[in-house]
TrEMBL record:
Membrane-traversing stretches: 21-41, 47-64, 73-93, 108-129, 136-154, 160-178, 198-215, 221-239, 251-272
UniProt keyword annotation of Phosphoprotein present: no
Superkingdom field: Bacteria
Name of the protein in its database record: Uncharacterized protein
Keyword entries, A-Z: Membrane, Transmembrane, Transmembrane helix
UniProt keyword annotation of Transmembrane helix present: yes
């Protein structure tokens, strides 16, 4: 079983970005496997508070030790932990009611492997295991955005206070993620610092307004999250290319075509309900 997990993980990571030889990947593989199994235990036990606290402490130790570039992906780590707990507890299929479950549901395995993979990618970027780290971080970045959007659109706030609260949470989440993104992916000198700060706030407002508009569409929350992730990806990429002096008319036309095409596919596969 462990041998199969190792081969699957290496295959996926080779698709995302080149990796070093197995001896250099092995430490983060065992850390990610520990994270995955611990998360699976959490799901089986249905997230007791004490076990959740222990899980958070263990996950931080796995992430932080050894102390190398710990702050570089700290935002992604801080975001991944609550997102994984909230998504799994909200959408996991219930276990057998009588006693301990004899079998673990497919959703429990799926969530554990998904979040274990994201943790694996995070460690690979942090410890410079991947050669194409920017591409790997793009995948991690979009995955976290999608999970956050899934939670946002699946919530059903009934009071104005809850609507404002959800919006404030999304503002803080987006602002922190964008700050980390541009510090890792984009190259900006000191003279562009103020411009980059303004650009982050503009992106936050655009994404927030897009969430409000998409929330009005009568489509299921998973497709709404996909549409919001697509919009966020397009405008973030345009901003990144601007700071890297790579923005061109051809790039804008191509991104517009991609956005229209994928938006059409999302609408076609959606179940429209009033």
């Amino acid at each position: 079983m462990l041998h199969k997990l190792k081969n699957i993980s290496l295959t996926i990571l080779k698709k995302i970005g080149n990796v070093q030889a197995w001896p250099s990947v092995q430490p983060i593989f065992w850390k990610a496997l520990t994270f995955t199994l611990f998360f699976l235990i959490l799901e089986v036990e249905q997230f007791p508070v004490l076990l959740v606290i222990i899980f958070v402490i263990v996950a931080f130790i796995l992430y932080a030790k050894p102390l190398f570039k710990t702050r570089s992906l700290l935002v992604s780590f801080v975001v991944l932990i609550p997102l994984s707990l909230l998504v799994a507890s909200r959408f996991a299929i219930s276990f057998e009611p009588a006693g301990l479950p004899t079998t673990i549901s497919f959703s429990a395995w799926a969530f554990a492997l998904l979040f274990g993979l994201l943790f694996y990618i995070m460690l690979g970027i942090k410890y410079l295991v991947f050669i194409r780290r920017k591409e790997a971080y793009h995948f991690l970045h979009l995955a976290l955005f999608y999970l956050a959007f899934v939670l946002y659109f699946s919530a059903t706030p009934t009071h104005i206070a809850s609507v404002i609260g959800h919006s404030l949470i999304m503002i803080i989440f987006t602002l922190l993620m964008l700050r980390e993104f541009f510090s890792i992916v984009s190259i900006t000198d000191q003279s562009q610092a103020n411009t980059a700060r303004i650009a982050r706030w503009v992106l936050v407002l655009l994404i927030l307004q897009a969430l409000w508009v998409i929330n009005l569409l009568p489509i299921e929350f998973s497709n709404a999250a996909s549409l919001a992730t697509l919009f966020a990806f397009i405008i973030i990429e345009i901003t990144r290319r601007y700071f890297e002096n790579g923005l061109s008319a051809r790039f804008l036309r191509w991104n517009f075509l991609v956005f229209i095409t994928l938006t059409g596919l999302i609408f076609l596969t959606s179940q429209w309900t009033l």
